[in-house]
Amino acid sequence: MVKKILTIAGSDSLSGGGLQTDLATFTTMGMAGFAVISSIVLIKDNKVRIDPVPIDIFQAQLDSVEQVERFSAIKVGLLQSPEQIEVVANFLKDFIGPVVIDPVLSFKEGKTELNHDVLKAYREKLLPLATVVTPNLKEGMLLLNDEKREAPKSRNGVLVMASDLSHLLRCSVYLKAGKGIQEGQYTDVLIDESNHGVVLHYDALDDAFNHGSGCVLAASMACFLADNMDLKEASRAAADFTRHAIVHSYSLKRHAEDGNAFPNWRVQTWN
């Protein structure tokens, strides 16, 4: 039986993330992907423009996918307002199954204005419904809401930060700490709801060709959880899957200085 999986996310016409990347990941993992669009994201000249879908249309999409008898997992990405967050929280409250939430609060392609009411709604209404939340270091700092706190610079510091996030958000946390913790390597940390920690290290790859890698990680983790892996196994498998997506990355044009992670690497064909 084909497993069905839902993404609630923004649309990126350049496929550097968002629902395009999520659906590609689901397909590679052999699952039927469904999508609810939260916003239209336009990226050009290192500027990001986000146009949220009107709340009535957003709600109507969620009402529509209730026709699906059962989703094996749900992945949540970009949400742009407290109203959108509340609508998604109401949709998820009776869902029985894995929920992976990637709180998109920053863009490497450019700055966007951050609404602090959005952060509050994430913390209080949505993230406690997650099986696991997958922030990067900057997003984790924003969610902690501690202006006096400095970003961690050691493995122990990252573990403490992830533990504090898990306690605050009342869910497991997969914190993408990046390459500033150990030279030549990326460091990620998983803290589950029992406060058990796992540190993942892997060799650093070219940063310029990893657009969408955060979406690939969260989407693949949702798939692995849908396949009944435990969270620790799913996290390691998702990190490995994402690494391959970066290795097989592609540019939008010749001689470009950056590019997208390629979640379809498992089914890639060569000319």
UniProtKB/TrEMBL annotation:
Keyword match Nucleotide-binding: yes
E.C. no: 2.7.1.35
Domain Pyridoxamine kinase/Phosphomethylpyrimidine kinase: 12-255
GO molecular function: kinase activity
Keywords: ATP-binding, Kinase, Magnesium, Metal-binding, Nucleotide-binding, Transferase
Pfam families according to UniProt: Phos_pyr_kin
Reactions it catalyzes: pyridoxal + ATP = pyridoxal 5'-phosphate + ADP + H(+)
InterPro entries attached to this UniProt entry: HMP/HMP-P_kinase_dom (IPR004399), PM/HMP-P_kinase-1 (IPR013749), Ribokinase-like (IPR029056)
Family: Belongs to the ThiD family.
Record protein name field: pyridoxal kinase
Organism: Fructobacillus broussonetiae
